[in-house]
Predict the structure.
Amino acid sequence: MGVYFNPDNGSFTEDKNSMIYVDKTGLLRFLNERLGTNSKCIAVSHARRFGKSHAAGMIDAYYSLGSNSIKLFEDTKIASDPEYKKYMNKYNVIHMDVSSVWDFHKDNVVEKIIEYIYKDLKNIFGNELDYQDRISYVLMKIYKKTEIPFIIILDEWDCVIRNSEDKELVHKYLQFLHALFKSEESKSFLALGYITGILPIKKIKDESALNNFREYTMVDSYPITEYYGFTENEVKILCEEYNMDFESIKAWYNGYLINGMHMYNPNSVSMALESGRFKSYWKNTSAFDSINTFITMNYEGLKDDVLTMLSGGKVMVDTESFQNDLAEIHSKDDALTALIHLGYLAYDENMLSAYIPNFEVAKAYQSALKTGSWTEISKSIANCDKLLMATIAGNAEKVAELIELAHDTYTSVLKYNDENSLSCVLTMAYFTAPAYYNIFREMPAGKGFADFVFIPRLNAGSRPAMIVELKYNKSADTAIKQIKEKRYQGALAGYQDIILLVGINYDAEGEDKIHHTCIIEEWEVNK
């Protein structure tokens, strides 16, 4: 019916007709239960490309009077709800992408939003309304006239808060939001408020415009977690349909653990399935310069923690102190929490810890670390492919040399005095290996635990499996003997291709400053 007022169902139709479509209409049942209640205002702040805009288009199609969506929803999950038609296309809907207005009207964004909405209203109601009145009063008058409640959707609502340093403009914008979602007039006309953003609602002193919103974030989005991103089961089904290796998809795009559910970036998964290629798709659609902005601050050893996470570890983080403002980063916890909300870290609520969720995000860090004080680490990561190729080629001398370089790079951060520290350095040294291998640390095998087992993925080509054993102040030969004596190769029982046995030793008292030695042997599988 209009661009912003009672839009049609074109957006959801396009999504539903896409090559890859995952049914998230269960969200509508959740929203229906909150229509006209004191839980009617909902704020979803998730990382980019996690399905917020898809959900907004679906809400348009379901509620808007400007649509006739019965056929569009008849084969969806919400159709199994006996009352789903009760709410379908029965509401006046206003849907605005605030960022699209902000891009062109930064100085008068509030006035322009209202102007665009009024243009649509005037096409329907003509001069019956006084468009000089405040917007909440105009919407109340429409409700009184039609007895049809409003559903108001604001995509990227927080772009003004995130990008403007003009306190007066921010205050005016918050007053506008107050009129839509919390004024006396809105209590009569508003059935549902749905806003999406990147960051949770900013904590602004003496402002209460949005304190009636229920918030759902990358830290906690229960009970609607499953409706944003792809769940693990949904990805498994898609992998079967597209004949793609699930374990490779998992390594590249899994890792976000929200309310105990493993969530995948839907944009990246879809791109990988459509192209049949595993690579980093997200960095081309997100401003990952923010990674470098935060980590170069190095609050309280943040740089050390980033290296810990890059090597597969987790670090404690207090997410409560963050003011939900990228301009208000005052501590390591603030920086880590911001990266969680932006999707560049994941959060383990049971361990109260942050970690790098998957290989795609790790690749984004690799790109971001090419400047400033991280250049040496970036150079070391650039050697990772050389190390992997040298290992596969059986070039033990080159492997020892490259691990020595990795040691020199990370030794100032990691306390390099035992096998556990050597294990961390090895993880960083083989940084790019997860693109081709499932890597298991301390894997149960034979009569003990193998330090590292590299099992090729289906996309690994002719790369061999590898068992890597680490020693400290012993010898590489001792490491190889342990693999054989404890039958660690049993971890690859049934594997019929080449297996490399790799022994690496770090000798703190090595002569001529040669601290690392390596032996590589090819295991005869039929043996």
Q: What stands out?
A: The radius of gyration is 27 Å. The chain has four domains: 10-225, 229-279, 289-375, 383-523. The mean pLDDT is 88. The first helix runs from residue 10 to 16.
